[in-house]
Structure formats: structure tokens, C-alpha cells
Design a protein that fits this description.
heterodimer; A: 383 residues; mainly alpha; ABC transporter involved in vitamin B12 uptake, BtuC; 2 domains; 0% strand; disordered N terminus; B: 519 residues; alpha/beta; 6-stranded mixed sheet; 18 helices; 24 strands; 33% helix; elongated
Chain lengths: 383, 519
Amino acid sequence: MNDITTVPNLDSGKGATLPNTQANTSKRSFKSLLVWESGLFVVLVASVIGGSILSPQFLTAGNILNLQLSIGEIAIMALPLALIVITGEIDLSVASILGLSSSLVGYLWMHHVPMSIALSVVLVVGALLGLFNGVLVTRLGLPSLAVTIGTLALYRGVALVILGSNIVSNFPPSYTSIGVNSIPGFDISYSMFVFIVLAVIFGLVVHFTPFGRSLFAIGLNKEAAAYAGIRVKRTKTTLYVLSGVICALAGVLYTFRLSTAEYNNGSGLELNAVSLVLLAGVSIFGGRGSILGVVLAVATLGTIQNGLLLTTFPQQAMGVVVGGLLLISVFVPNASLIRRQFQEFKFKKVAKKRSNSGESMGDLETKRILSSATGGKGDMLQS
Amino acid sequence: MYYHRGTSTLPEVGKNNGTHMVTPTLALKHVRKYFGAVHALEDASLELFAGEIHALVGENGAGKSTLVKILAGLHQKDAGEMLFENFETTFTSPKDSIDSGIAVIYQEPTLFPDLTIAENIYMERQPRRSFNRIDYEEMNSSVSSIFASLGVALDPRQVSIGLSIAEQQLVEIAKALTLNAKVVVMDEPTAALSAKEVERLFHIAKTLKAQGVAILFISHRLEEVFRLCDRVTVMRDGRFVMSDLTENVSEETLVRAMVGRDVDLSERSEQRSVHEVVLEVERLSEEGVFNDISFSVRAGEVVALSGLVGSGRSEVVGAIFGIRRYDYGSVKVNSTQLKKGSPARAMEAGIALVPEDRRQQGLVMEMAISRNIALASLASLKRFGVLSSKAEKNFSKDWALKLRLKYSKLTSPVSTLSGGNQQKVVLAKWLSRSPKVLIVDEPTRGIDIGTKVEVHRLIFELARTGVAVLVVSSELPEVLALSDRILVMREGSLVGEFERSQATEEKIIALATTTKAVA
């Protein structure tokens, strides 16, 4: 039976692959997924210890409330964003939706609309803003990066149209106290409470429901997901709507915390939200991540930022920390891959030199070069 | 699934027919190329002489494309000899191949759309003037004169966007001429051309031949081979089969050489009892892809959709499943019309599709085996809205056992499995939904023979229990072994239907390749 050959159908440009390389790559990334959250936990413990050494105020109840308040809205926005990134898309308009919602709350309050109605209107508008993103991305098939950069500017512009240069700050203390106080009897801010409740719900949905499973399938291979009957476009649209509503909620909390509605509220916070999501171990290429990671990332980033504020670290330079963490989060999971590519590059160069100088290469060596040359982009060479 | 018993011998064309006593421009001898466990080329040989048009024919998967890619420097042979003008050569990159004087014209060339024709032709080697400026005048006039010599009315200054495929091929041919190509390889150049464009291409091919260029012409259309080519080489299963002057062979001989082999497939023994119509496809059309497709499949029946790759088979089954939209027509399951463009609805109606491309469409490669098996059945694994991990585990374990899946851990990514076992995962995913209609597109491509036999048995078993099965396959022995009825497609249309008792590989191939009607 050994003389039987199975011939791939190369006419259609698919077929032959190098199975070993494929298997190794996915095994490696599978492991790194399990390792990420524990690594994050170690960093968190280290920064808590570091913070308490650096400043005696660090572990006081007042400071911990401050920590929660400073990261609350970003943390809330990061939850739906994590889901969007898991499906392989992005939403950079989150902070602009926050700003628009804040302006809308201010505008409605300024025009004597009762707060309960104002809040309902804001949440509905948030959903519509998200729907607009979702429709552009899924129905028109536009790249989400471009679409949400566009709506980042657009929604901020609409916020300016709504409120102009007005600053609304005459909110009743019963609402603004939600923004700055902790829940009576607990050392938890309202925003952090919202985050924890949402994180529990999101964790359940993402990791224990068919819907959650479909998000990972879409992120890893949206074609195969569609072939399995998953409604890819509808799912993504749902996530953008969800993101819109939750960012609107974050906008309300932000407004109450600062007791101020202003068109540029939360400007630039999308960077922090994206950093959080990547720090959480959610793969920017989609298909990987966990809500536990997001929770740990919130705690870690909050701790580091807060700890630095207690030292003489200039607050204006906080971008260095956020940006640095973002780069590290992207670099670390890919470090082994980058190293391997670099080695292959060197190896190929050597091989090229040899073949140019007329030296013949052994069979084995040729094969090694071939497999390294086709390893990452085998499909390209096949087609 | 075929068995090779004979050994192939090298063509001795030069001696046999007395026409070519010179050394070949290009010769391949016993070339072998494996991709992992897949043997794309086993023993390929070819001799190409200056001033001839040489046809290379073979079924899908015979290794033609791999051979072309070796000539183009995209792949490197594992063993055997490649002699270019009598010197042993290896092309380590496409540049090597081009520099040696080999030009490959692909079925669908890729030009830079925003550049002019002349700029495309002289990419990376533009004629220069002082201060290293590009000499557009020289560039355009030289392309003009080449077009004139070929009798082509194209303006070198025209931007490439909007050129037809035929015109793009002409640009590639002109490029080959500016490179002084000694060998021009045309990989199925006529597949997307109109009759008129084919005539023009043939005329140009003959012009090139008169200039002493060696042309390797790959085509599925045998009548073209006989009209245009001087010699023909047949490949099968990665091996050289025969080579002769076209005037010495008949179409029949050629077809038999392409197909001919000892077929040893487990054929269905029992007569299947066929019941009511389950799947009904009426006048299904998608503009430019497939046209007016009507057929039905009964419960307990296995129907094959046969035809060449690119004839529209996979597109039709994609439309039935809803992953593609169609412009016209209808799909009914048990007399209920399906909403178009919705795989979810098709699945609810009882259709399952094992897609053509296992890695891209069938599986989420980096997801766990168990999760892939459960992916199409998640709704049934819910307990109070939450996925029961225990139910999911038992479910996938159960199906892995039923299909005799070989795995180490169900939580390992599916990419760690062999091709055959990956296919079993796809099958498990769909069979676990107990479909009424099972569509399998190339169910055994690239998998080992043992698994292949198992897959075939599985299909028989399903048909016996009353599932309506639609099989798409490029392998004729498989088509013949599996199906009760065989539908043949060519260029987007259904061109014929055979009862199994009347069907032979020769008849199917003839119907799928030639344009003249065959009874």
C-alpha cells in the first residue's frame, strides 16, 4: 500500500501545507494565553507592594477610592471594547461617545429636562451612535479602524454642536455625589460597582454562552464562523450597539464625577481604553482574550497610575506609562515570533550567499530553508 | 484513490519521432516535490524544445501547477534534474527563473492597476536617461513595436486598470518578449477568454513559435491542444504518463492517459432505496458564475456534482447553503423555500455543508478540537442559556469516537491534527446536527487513503439512513464510486446528467472539457 500517493489539488491554489510549523505556532500561542493572566497578576501584586513602599498614603481608604474613580469610566468602556477586539475589530470612538453623552446630559439638564428622561435619551442616543459604527463596518464592509477614527472626530464634533463652548455644572448634589462618593457601607465607587457588575455579566456571556463562543470563532476565522452558521455581521453590529450604550453610561458617570458637562469631556480616553484591552491580553488580531484579563488589567493600570501620582512623577507625563504599557502588551506575546523571524532572516541571508557563491547545499539544508521560507506565508506561495 | 503499478519511463521524443534532434531548451527528469506528507510531484518529466508549442495536460491534481511553480522559481524540486539549455539548474526565486529566460503567463495576471502598460512591462528595469531619469519615450516606443509585431492594438501609455484578462495576458506576453524569454509557460490562459480572444492568443502563440520560443501550453480543453500544439505530455498523479506528437494521438488516447489507472474503490454493493425529493434547486443563477442550475436530490440518494475546478460547482453548493447570494432561482428543502444568503436558515432547514477549503472554511484552526466539533451545535448544548461544558465535552467526545478520530487531547487546537483527522472534525461538526441534506465539497482532498475509505463508508451509511447527499469532487473514481447520479457542470452550466450505470470516467471528462455535445 506504500505506493499510493495523495495529490493535493493545487489547481485551486490550496492544499499543501507544512503541518509541523502550523502546529507549533498555535501550540505556542495557546500556552501564552494561559500564562498571560497569571503574569498580569504578578505585575499587579508587585505594583501594590511597590505603591505601598513608595507612599504611606497608598493603602488608605481615601486613596483607594481615588484610584477607583480615576479608572472607573475607562474600565467600563474597556469591557465592550474587549469583545469588539476579540472579534477582530476595533472601536476608537468610545471616548467621543462618552463626550457626546456628557454634552447631551448637560444640554438636556440646561433645558430643564427631568434627569430620568435625560438619562434614557442619552442611553438611546449611545445605542444609535454604536449602531452607526456597526452598520458602516458590517453592512458597508468598511475597515473598523478607519470608520471609528472617523466617528471619533465626528461624534466629538457633534458634542461641540450640541453644547457649544458652554459648561454645564449646576447638577443636583444627589447626582454628583454618585460621581465622587462610595456606595454607603462599602469602599467601592459607583463607577467601580457598575464595572464589577458588568464584568460578571460579560464574563458569563463571553466564556459560557454560545454567543461568547461565536465571538472567538469570528475573531479567529470569520469565514469558518460564517460557514458554521454564525451570523457574523449581526454579531458585530450588536457589539457596536452595546459599546455605544455602555460608553454613554460611562459618559453620564464621568459628568457626575466632574460635576461638569463639557464637549471635550473624556477627550483622548480611547487610548487608555485600548491600552487596557491590550494589557488584558486580548489579541489585537482577534480571537484571544478573557474578561478576567480585563479585570486584572484595570486593577494593574489603576494601581500603577495611582502609585505614580503619589510620587513626584509629573501627571502630564502619564502618557509615557499608558503608551509604554500598550507597546509592552503588544510586544511580549509576539516576542518569540519576532525573534524567530529574525533568526530565519539571518539564516536565509547566509543560504543565499552560499548559493550565490556556487556552493551546493545539502538536501537537508535546502529543506530547512524551504520550510523556514514558507513557514509563515505558506498560503501565499501556494496560491 | 488510485494505485500505481506501472513505472513511468522518460519520453524519448527526440529519437522516436525524428523531429527534434537538438537538445531541449528545458528538460525535467524524474522531478519530485513533496509538501510534508503530500506528494505533489512523484516523477515528473518534460522536454521542451525551441520553436514548439507543447501541451501539458492532466486531471486536477495531476501536478501541473506544481510543475509550473517549479519552473517559475516559486517552489524548488526535492529531487530529480532540471536542465536548462543542457545545464543543471535550480531556480531559488522567481527572479532566477526570469533572469534565465523563463516567462510564466498566469490565468489571471496581476498588473499594477494604476501604472501604464509600458510601466508595467518595464517594472524594475526601466530604460534610463541622464541623471537616472526614466526614458519614457524609449519605453513606450519599444512596447509599441512589440505590440505591432504581435498585431495587437494596445496603447503602451494606457493605464492598466480596466484591461480585460485577455489584454492583461498580452501585456505579460509583451513583457516576456522584452526579457528575451526563451520559454513561455501559459498556465490555462484560455480559461477566462472569449472565443475571439482565444483566436488572437493562438495567433500570437504561433508568432512566438516562429521566432523560436518554446511554449508550454497548459489547458483543460483538449480541442485547443489538438488545434494549437505540436506535442503533448500527459501527467497523472504527479507522474509523467506519456508524450507524443499531437498528430499521433487521438482525443480518446489522451483522455484514457489522463484518467487511465486501476481503479479500486469500495463500490456500493446494495441497491439503495430512494424516497421523496428532499432538496430541490430550481433555475439557480448568479451572474457570471453559474447559470440556470436545476436539479433535485432524493432522500437516500447520493448525487455527484462533477466538473472541472472553476466550473462553478463549489459556488452552486455555496449558494444552496446560503454562504453566497444568488441572483435568481430558488432552493427548497422538503418543499419549503429557503431564505437566500442565510446559512443559519439553511441549517435550520436541515442542510449541512462540509466546505471545500477545510483550513479556511471548515475549521477554526486555533480553536480546540472539542469546540470545533460543537461549533455548529452550540444552541443544543445550552442549559438555562449557559453552555454546559460537560455537555459539550461529552458531545464532542461522543462524535470523536463515532468517527474514530485520532487525537491526544480534545482541548488541543485542531491544527495539531493530521489532514484526515481534521476532515473528520469537520464531518463530526455537521453530522452531529443530523442533517436531512448533506453537501460535501471535495470530502477527501489531500487526506490519506485509510481516512478516505472511512469517509466513503460514512457517506454510504448516511444515504442508507435516508439522508440526501450531494457530493462535489474533482476525483472521478470517487464520483463514480459514491454516487447514484452524476451531474456534470462546465463553465457555470449543467451540461449533462448520467445514471451511474451509464457513466464512465471518459464520458464525464469528455463532457466536462469539450465544447461539443456528447451523448
